[in-house]
Every structure is written in C-alpha cells, then in structure tokens.
Amino acid sequence: MSTSPQPNEQPTGLPAALPAALPAALPALPALPHDSIAELSHDFRLANSRLTRRLRQQRADDELTAGQFSALCSVYSSGPLTLSELSEHERVTPPSMNRTVNALVAAQLVKRENAADDGRKVILTASEAGGALVQETRERRDAWIAQRVMKLSPEQQQVLAEATLIMKELAEN
Amino acid sequence: MSTSPQPNEQPTGLPAALPAALPAALPALPALPHDSIAELSHDFRLANSRLTRRLRQQRADDELTAGQFSALCSVYSSGPLTLSELSEHERVTPPSMNRTVNALVAAQLVKRENAADDGRKVILTASEAGGALVQETRERRDAWIAQRVMKLSPEQQQVLAEATLIMKELAEN
DNA sequence: TATTGTTATACTCTATAACTATA
DNA sequence: TATAGTTATAGAGTATAACAATA
Asked: Which pick of A104, A107, A153, B63 has the fewest CB atoms within 10 Å?
C-alpha cells in the first residue's frame, strides 16, 4: 500500500508513452497497446498466469503433472542436482520440492542418493526410465502449444523466442 | 505417445533452422537459440510456468492469492460476468471458479446476484471495496515485475508487449 | 432434456514450523 | 552453530462426479 510506483528513474525507463522513443528498429511490429510500464507489467503478469492455467487444462490424465514433469526435465537435462539446487531452479521451497521428488522417486523416474562428500546432501538423478519418459512424452506434451506456435508468423515466433529468454531471466532473479 | 511431431506442413512453418528464413526485419535481436518449433515451444512452456511460480513467491501474506486477484481483476474490468463466463476467462472449471468466488464474496469484494432474466445464472460484480482494492493493490502487486521490466531495453519491452498479445491469444484457444 | 450453478470429494501444489542428521 | 533435508500440518487450486434449480 505504501510502496510508490517508481517514477521513471532508470536509464532505460520510458516516459509513459513508449512508441515515440523507439529507434524505429521494429517496423513489422504493431504499436504497443500499453501506456506505461506498469500497465504492460500488469497485463503480462495476468497473461502469464492465465496461459499457465490454460496449459494445465491440456494435460492428459495419464501424464505427469506440470510440476512433476518440470522437475523431472530439470533433473534430466541439468544433470545431478541436490534438493536445494532443484528447488531453487523450480522456484519453490525445499519442502515443496521434496514432495514432488517423493512422487518421482516412487514412480522410479528419479534416483535419490546420499552425496559421498557431504552426508547432509542428497543427489537427484534421472533414472533410465525417467530419461526415456522425458524424451517420449515431450513431443506429446508440447503438441498442443507447438501446433499453435507453428501457425504464428516468423516474426511472432521470433518474439516468443526472445520473450522466453527474458522470462527465464526474470524467473532467475 | 502416438502423436507425431507434425513435420512442417503449415504455411508459416519454418524449416528446422529459423534465422535464415527471416526477412531481416529484426536486426537488433539476437539469433534464436532454438533449433525447432518443438524446442521453442518446450522452452517457452517451462519458462512460463517457472515465471508463474516465481511471481507466486513474491506475494505478500496480506494480499489476495494470484488466482483470487486475477478473478477479481476480470470481474472488475470486464464488467458483470456470470460464473461460466468468468471460469472460461480464467481457464478453470466452474466448480474451481466457484470456490474462488466464494472467497471473494466472503471478503465482500464481489457481489453475487441472481440474473433477472434467467434464474439459473448468477451475476458477479465487483463491489466498491473490490474495485478500490484492485486499484490500490495493483501497483504494489506489480512492483516487483515492473521494476524489472523498467530495466529492460526498449526493444525488450516491445518484445514483452508483443509476447503478451500472443500469450493472450494462446490462452483463449 | 439441456443448461447453470453448486456441493462433495480427492489430489496436487505450495508454504511455514519444527525436527533430524551432518558439518 | 549452521546447513541440508525431511516430516507435519494447513490452505489454495484444481478436477470429476453428482445433485438442484431453472429453461
């Protein structure tokens, strides 16, 4: 309630109306519909969470849940991880991640082992079945969104690719 | 499992490597790190859900949850809505939305009334307190992301604005 | 009969607090 | 004492199935 809205003090802050300040480098894109960074941020945030819900709707009954699959992908592609490392990467608390890991270990998709050098740590690794599941399921899970991304223009696809980088960056800080 | 990965048959489908096919309209943006639409879709999906979790982490204890605030914003800015309309907009089932609405009604932020023309329907409207809460809380809730968006380059801000439109479109279909 | 909303129930996701084991 | 992980507990979010009221 008492937090002020940060009147543009940043070097790259824009003066309320964005388009005029742009160096005309993006002619193919339509004008921004947002009057301010606050409005853009608000819109983006709501769009993000609604899209997450939309994607959740799409999941088939026999598939891992979104959280489980995301955690499995991280373990599989980012190598062996401790619980803390995984929970930080997934942006949840260790107890939350532990519950997800329990489900994955019970399904024999992830192996949980004690670290050799530090008895407090556990090392999480994707099992052979876990790695196979990622590879097999990935295309099917992504089919819904991939079909739609495929129908976008090359420019829009470029926008999504760029946005993905920005979103990763935002999620990490 | 049996769903095939759709070998680029779409008119706008790109031939596995994106950059070469682009009409050189976006010189300021770096080359795409994705080899295929499947990979972009996968990355984008995971980034989206991780960012949602990151944003959830940011919520203060005395604020509405993400789902409650999103629903309140929809009722407030998209006028009176029936339960079905709201649940479709928020991309959850009517029973799920009903639970959220119950919380908002209990907090006297939303009014639930019977529709005059159709006794089966309910009309949801933001109360005066609900509208005031949206306006008061919005800046504070968005402060975290707005601060970060403010530090992005104008080009990156443009990307986010464009991506927001695409994400809204994706969530609606 | 079909539609709209609600209740009942269950499972996942998430968090905080408190505990154990190790460093 | 500090750190890594786990267990206990609780609340929010979500869904399906079943039900009630209305059209």
From this structure: A153
Number of inter-chain CB pairs under 8 A, A vs B: 254
Q: Model confidence over A21-46: pLDDT tens digits?
A: 344 444 444 556 688 999 999 999 99
Counted domains in chain A = 1
Say whether the CB atom of A82 is under 7 angstroms from strand D.
yes
Q: Which helix (H) or strand (E) holds B143?
A: helix B128-150
Residue B77 lies in a domain: yes
Comparing CA positions, the residue from A109, A140, A131 lying closest to residue B1 is A140
Residues 69 through 108 of chain A touching chain B, CB cutoff 8 Å: 70, 73, 90-92
Rg, C-alpha atoms of chain A: 20
Q: Which of residues 75-94 of B touch strand D (CB under 7 A)?
A: 90, 92-93
Q: Is the alpha carbon torsion for A123, A127, A133, A136 positive or negative? A: positive
CATH of the domain at A78: 1.10.10.10
Chain A CA closest to residue B35: A161
pLDDT for B43-67, tens place per residue? 999 999 999 999 999 999 999 999 9
Give Cα separations from B35 to A82, B31, B32 (angstroms): 30, 11, 8
Residue A133 maps to a domain = yes
Q: Which of strand C's nucleotides are less than 7 A from any protein C-beta?
A: 3-9, 12-18, 21-23
| B73 occurs within a structural domain | yes
User: Among residues B150, B153, B60, B61, which one has the least CA distance to residue A39?
Assistant: B150
Amino acid code (one letter) for A152:
L
**Which residue has tokens 């706008």?**
B12
Nearest beta carbon to residue B167 from set A1, A25, A47: A47
